[in-house]
Amino acid sequence: MKRFHFPHKDIIDSQQFSREDIDTILEATNRIVELKQQNRLFGILQGKLMASLFFESSTRTRLSFEAAMQRLGGRIITTVGFQFSSISKGETLYDTMKMIEAYSDIAVMRHPVEGSSRIAASAVKIPIINAGDGAGQHPTQALLDLYTIVKERGLPNGKRIAFIGDLKFGRTIHSLVKLLTHYEVEFVFISPADLALPQSYRKELIAKGISFDETEDLKAMWDCDVAYITRIQEERFADRDEFERLRNSYTIHRAFVQASKKETLLLHPLPRVNELSTDVDEMPNAAYFRQAAYGVDVRMALLCLCLQADMPSD
Ligand code: CP
Q1: Which residue among 24, 29, 31, 61 is the active-site one?
Q2: What pLDDT does residue 233 have?
């Protein structure tokens, strides 16, 4: 049996990871894929129970975590939305988490309030995985995004990577930018000026001596190796008129992608709305559905690492 060294109880944000941690996660994911091919996954997390707490809507994150747990032989308990939780009766997140701790071995939580995962993790001894906290972070998405880049194009070193769309509210972007600072990447940020990357992230890049380009011109993706496209995050706008003004800022069609000289790898965390046309889907470099599928493998690895599980060795 093999147990990977992983010095974290919780997964809260991307900046908690060292380069060594990231390498461990990629290696553990590769091992999971090998075990999957050998039909040897079931039983690795037998006897473990995962609480799936999704206080905000989700398709990919919730179902891929639940699939991951069950493919490893673990089981799940789940709650979706505040309306079916006693939080709707006024119970605090702290009290809720004390109950979750009594009922389960690990919890995965999505919550609309930035910082809520950290509060939850400090309340309990079981591992807490942040599955998205408001406009804050979504670290497991960033890890599967990185895994996708590595799987499809190799390590990110030397690559020019465009981030397109709602860089202000897009938590997947926030997490991936922080993760990619461990590599020698050229960052290109493409967005309407009102949805630019928050100042704190830009300051951090500058402090680390990492240069980046910022533009509103979508054509800047044409000389990039990877384009990470995101939707305008409607649910984060306090001002409806502001959203209406920005909602149709850009749409990427097949003809636009074909005009590029490079075979730019197209990623999107999904869901998409109108920023990425379905006529792109059949292009070989459109990797976003493969990206979502890799999420199960990465999340199986993360569950094993957080639960300090042994994986079968050869
Ligand atoms: N990418 C992502 O977080 O998708 P869901 O909101 O469907 O979980």
Answers
A1: 61
A2: 86
| Whole-structure pTM value | 0.96
Ligand 1 atom nearest the C-alpha of 61 is 8
Choose which residue among 270, 276, 294, 298 to substitute to test ligand 1 binding: the one with the highest number of ligand atoms within 8 A of its C-beta. 270
Task: Find the 59 Cα to ligand 1 centroid distance in Å.
Answer: 6
Choosing from 31, 48, 71, 110, which is the catalytic residue?
A: 110
Phi, psi of 133 (to 5 degrees): -120, 100
pLDDT at 104: 98
Measured CA to CA, the distance from residue 69 to residue 175 in angstroms comes to 23
Q: Which amino acid is at 18?
A: S
- pLDDT band for 261, please (50, 70, 90 cuts): confident
Q: From atom 4 of ligand 1, which residue's Cα is the shortest distance away?
A: 60
> Which residue is catalytic, options 138, 171, 174, 272?
138
